[in-house]
Amino acid sequence: MSPRRSSPQPVSVQHAMTSADLTPVPSPERRGESMIDMHGVVKTFKSAAGEFTVLKGIDLTIYRGEFVSIVGKSGSGKSTLLNMITGIDHPTAGRVVIGGTDIYTGVTESQRSKWRGRNLGIVFQFFQLMPMLTLLENVMLPMDYAEMYDFDERPKRAMELLELVGLEKFANKLPVLVSTGQQQLAAIARALACDPPLLVADEPTGNLDTKSADVIIDLFEELSRRGKTIVMVTHDPSLTSRTTRNIIISDGELINETVAKALPWLRHRHMLEFSKLVQTEIYPPKATIISRDEHVEKFFMIHKGEVEVVLFDRKHGETIISRLKPGEFFGEIELIRGGKSIANVRAGANAPVEVLTIRREDFQRVMEQSPITAEALAKIVQERLKEHRAADSRSGRGLFSFFRRRP
What we know:
Layout: E1 34-47, E2 50-63, E3 67-71, H1 78-86, E4 93-98, E5 101-102, H2 109-119, E6 120-123, H3 135-146, H4 154-164, H5 180-191, E7 198-202, H6 210-225, E8 229-233, H7 237-240, E9 245-250, E10 253-254, H8 257-262, H9 268-277, E11 279-283, E12 288-290, E13 298-304, E14 307-313, E15 317-324, E16 329-330, H10 332-337, E17 344-347, E18 353-359, H11 360-369, H12 371-395
Parallel strand pairs: 3-8, 3-9, 6-7, 7-8
Antiparallel strand pairs: 1-2, 1-4, 4-5, 9-10, 11-18, 12-17, 13-16, 13-18, 14-15, 14-17
Helix pairs in contact: 3-4, 3-5, 4-5
């Protein structure tokens, strides 16, 4: 089994664009790295039919320099979540801290609007360019609103941004005279006008062809490398593979990211169910997690650290069959095939390992309800058994005699 992709370390970038009207929040331990901190965010809408809670206690941290995708079915709450980040809507409860600034507590709408203009770039699905202004004038518009840069400097900066997105030759054209893909590139240039540390994109490729969409994502990747934090809502699963993190929201709640990485075949409702059932276990370096010939009663998913799968006997010593990283899992062979463990599993030598576990009965119940996941895991079991047999054969130990089916 090939290791699953894990999120890179966040890039720490210093930005000086915080409105003087807002009071920075005291910095906890990792504040220097985080761009977005959401704590217990609830959003409830009231209507004649009663109250409906769209967000149900969201806790989320996104770090500086990350390129994050947010996905979820229609009605899952992703647009409302985005509105909490942009300050367009107000949470019913909880706190939203962006770049160290609480954007709701004790803040007027005027203050929040000023903060938004200097610290946040928004890219919409339908571009929302001013039709009577040229592309250059559209890009200059946020600078005028936020009173950023000298008046004579604004055209030069706007042209530099159009050059960044490859539209310098179209600077003096109206939006209607360029393609939809070029309009979206112009909208991105406009979102970057005030050099915001955070860029939020709502279905930015939803109205574009594949080639134009690739250009947009290439640009987002480059901006992320330059230190911008990018949060993108999308329905397109092909785009999530290009982001550093994929956050899934289901029925107003966030799915555990480790569960989503380990078991991407599950339906969102099953992912959410597992997210609520998981237990966290932490093992010090080299600590045994599963012993060979032991009954396995849990399914394990690695959240942090590294796990080693080891064959050992007195005559030949030990052989490390594989090393598993965050987002990978183990214990599935014994749960699916029955029997005792065929190898030792231990925490890596250099650091503690944190794993999330699901009880056997919960794991098997969900597998029965998700045949696609069960089939995918069965294939992984076969691959891993081949790896074990190959290592067993090379060592000449015959350790597979330890594999026993349950009676």
